[in-house]
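Same chain as my last thread, 73 residues:
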Amino acid sequence: MVEKRKIMFGVNVTSSENSDKENRYRDFQLLILPYPGCEHFRDFSVQRYNGELMFYDWSLPLNDSSFHVPERV
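reply #2:
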C-alpha cells in the first residue's frame, strides 16, 4: 500500500507486519516499498490488462508511506 494506514468502510486497515502485537516479525527486516492498492489493479483488470494509458498519482496526500531499505539487508 502507499499508505501507512488506511480506513476502508469505516475500519482501519494496515499490513499484517505493522499490526502484529505478538511480534512474529521480530526477526525480519522489512523493505518498505509503496505500491498502488487493489483499486488501481482492479482498474488495470477492467482495461484488459492494458496499462498504456494508466497512471498513478504518487503526489496524492494519501500516499504517506515512503520507500525504505535498511543499511544492512
